[in-house]
Amino acid sequence: MTTKLFQSYDSTLFQGAISYYLQYRPRYPNALYDLISQEFQLDGQGKLLDLGCGIGLVAIALHDRFQSVLGIDPDTEMLEVAKQEAKLAHASNITWVRDLAENISPAIGTFSLVTIGRAFHWMDQELVLQRSYDLLDRTSNANRGIAIIQTEKDIWSNDSVWAQNVLATIKRWLGEERRVGSSSVPLLYKSDLEVLDRSPFVRIKRHKIDFQKHWTIDNFIGYLYSTAYCRRDYFNGDTSVFEAEIKAAILSAEPSGQFVEDVPISVYFGFKD
After folding, report:
1. Which terminus in the chain has less CB density within 10 A, N or C?
2. What is the pLDDT at residue 179?
3. Where are the beta strands (DSSP E) in 15-155?
4. Residue 118: which region, alpha, beta or left (left: phi > 0; alpha: psi -120 to 50)?
5. Which of 123, 125, 119 is nearest to 149 (CA)?
6. How buried is residue 242: exposed, middle or buried, by Cβ count under 10 Å (0-12/13-18/19+)?
């Protein structure tokens, strides 16, 4: 296979959003990590490769179930936060590398497991799956494979009244299409990962974990500013009017100002025989 070096990355994707990302983004539940451990018989041995690692949520949560972890992400600011979070968690066995997932090659070694979280939708999926498969070792009888974690529901696909009110407000301010840094997309998430069926991985499995996020208005506004579609800098100055409209949109459906969002998590597993 000819190696193609990928260099395109929109460095503005989460510009100015990282502090909000760290404080307001929902964390994955422990049930997710227990499920991954069970499927791949994790026992503290082997190496983990976490692609699109962001601020290190998955890499740090799983670090004590491997001898070593390599987290790769193209965003410098994300990686700096990941390093800080790893230090706070005493996760000293993680190495962080700034690069695109598409650029992985045998030069970085072989691994027991590859994980990819929400960042998978930004990637050249077929290429990343092939290259991930090629880096999985066969040094033991333990399961080797990939775990892809998807939260396939967000404000753009939530039919709750409060969510539709919020989305209508965002569209009035920022346009009908979903912003993604310097461009836009009509739809980001897919309800199923058919690309896995076309990959070299076998015994494809999908598990669903029901997860709920409890919000206050202030926390939800902070979350919006953590996203690529509603970054604070898009508003070019004072956001007080926008925030007041978001508050009114939520209160019209949830008068208490406290509400629950269903965020089902789909976990896709593929194995290397």
Report:
1. N
2. 83
3. 47-51, 68-73, 94-98, 113-116, 145-151
4. alpha
5. 119
6. buried
